[in-house]
Write a structure and sequence with these properties.
It is a single chain. This protein is of the alpha+beta class. It has 12 helices and 22 strands. The strands form 6 sheets. It has a 7-stranded mixed β-sheet with strand order 8-7-18-19-20-17-21. It binds uridine-5'-diphosphate (UDP). Residues 86, 95, 152-153, 156-157, 160, 172-173, 175-176, 285, 287 line the site of uridine-5'-diphosphate. Uridine-5'-diphosphate binds next to helix 6 and helix 7.
């Protein structure tokens, strides 16, 4: 029983592992386009000895115990409470914006008044979406919402996505709430841990199984063929009737026959400094100044102890061009989903083709959601095939 998987990020790797653990006769072959496994979670030691994440900052956190336990089989965990701050009007305030931000940016009397009104309406440390604040019936709360919207969201979002904030789905900005208290934890998830030795090790361990074979430097385009009328898939020129899991970009696989799926890309600029730490928090956002959106300092994320050297990352959002850069963020709006739906419909003709992951499902997934989905997909594939 053979299974072909395209891509070795979390989607492909979790499904591979789950399938081979289900039955000793299941053999999985993974084809990975890049010259390494691990998808965008891939990390490596840079020329300065600092562990960096090659495709931007990735932080593991989940409410799902099954996900936490499963990943925990392939790594030791290190507790990591993520903190983000933003530079607003020359001051540093927490993101999500919270009461400490109010104290910093408003005069004492005004700050006290705003906090009092918010406390009458919300629970301590309740996470409220910016959308809810903007729709509040209370004039004071609404105008506070408008202030946060302008200072934290409007310009960051325009910079990040290259389109005005009202052209992007509200689910995107609602990822970042406003906190009704002094809580500074960036996430509110139950399990917040980072892999002790980095993410690449997780993939090494997960894919280290005698029933899994991985081929890097292989683009799916060069090995997969589809005959639409016969509803037949060919792998390496031969009819293949087993399950195929596609975790890569659908438009690329079909040579962009229905157009390019819109993504936002990033120009990632790494800088090294001969100092212990460059900034005081893992991530500093720059909503209203600079061309980059944020600076991440990896030593905080990875917990690596190394003196007098630190590497930071500046993320410059840019237009996606399939020939030049990486599709990082699916642009979430009606138009792009319609185009995706056309690709999806094409692939639905092939009964045993499963689409999973950020690229193949064209969803702005966090890694924990990808893992959750991949676990469900593995169950589905088992149910339908084995
Ligand atoms: N966002 C913002 N200001 C911030 C942080 C985030 O406006 O200081 C908005 C922006 O539209 C961004 C979205 O919230 O794309 C999600 O942010 P998140 O930090 O979750 O993005 P990711 O870490 O996935 O890049």
């Amino acid at each position: 029983m053979e299974v072909v998987i395209i891509g070795s990020g979390f989607a492909g790797s979790v499904i591979a592992r789950k399938l081979v653990e289900h039955h000793q006769d299941i053999k999985v072959t993974i084809y990975e386009k890049r010259n390494h496994i691990g998808g965008n979670m891939y990390d490596e030691i840079d020329e300065n000895g600092v562990l960096i994440q090659k495709y931007g900052p990735h932080i593991f956190h989940t409410n799902n115990k099954e996900v936490f336990d499963f990943v925990g089989r392939f790594t030791e965990y290190r507790y990591f409470k993520h903190e983000v701050v933003g530079e607003i009007d020359g001051e540093i305030v927490p993101i999500p914006f919270n009461f400490a931000g109010i104290d910093t940016l408003f005069a004492l009397k005004e700050a006290t008044k705003i906090k009092k009104i918010l406390m009458e309406k919300y629970e301590v440390n309740q996470r409220v979406s910016i959308g809810q604040l903007l729709e509040s019936q209370d004039d004071m709360i609404r105008s506070f919402g408008e202030y946060v919207y302008e200072k934290v969201f409007v310009h960051y979002t325009a910079k990040q996505w290259g389109i005005p904030i009202d052209e992007i789905d509200t689910s995107v900005i609602n990822r970042i709430p406003v906190v009704m208290g002094y809580e500074r934890n960036h996430f509110s998830t139950k399990y917040q841990y980072m892999p002790k030795e980095g993410f690449k090790k997780i993939f090494d361990n997960m894919l280290d199984h005698h029933q899994i074979q991985v081929f890097c430097n292989v683009n799916a385009k060069t090995i997969l063929n589809f005959n639409e009328e016969k509803r037949q898939v060919y792998v390496n020129g031969k009819k293949f009737d087993g399950p195929i899991v596609m975790t890569g970009a659908l438009d690329e696989l079909l040579d962009y026959k229905y157009g390019v799926l819109p993504y936002r890309s990033l120009d990632l600029k790494y800088e090294n400094y001969k100092m212990n730490y460059f900034q005081t928090k893992p991530v500093v956002n720059y909503p209203n100044s600079e061309k980059f959106t944020r600076i991440t300092e990896f030593k905080y994320l990875t917990g690596q102890r190394i003196d007098n050297t630190t590497t930071i990352l500046k993320e410059y959002p840019c237009t996606y061009n399939p020939e030049k850069n990486t599709p990082f963020y699916p642009i979430v709006n009606k138009e792009s989903y319609l185009r995706y739906a056309i690709y999806k419909k094409y692939f639905e003709k092939f009964a045993k083709l499963y689409l999973c992951g950020r690229l193949a499902e064209y969803k702005y997934y966090d890694m924990n959601s990808v893992i959750t989905e991949a676990m469900k997909y593995a169950e589905k594939i088992i149910e339908e095939n084995f």
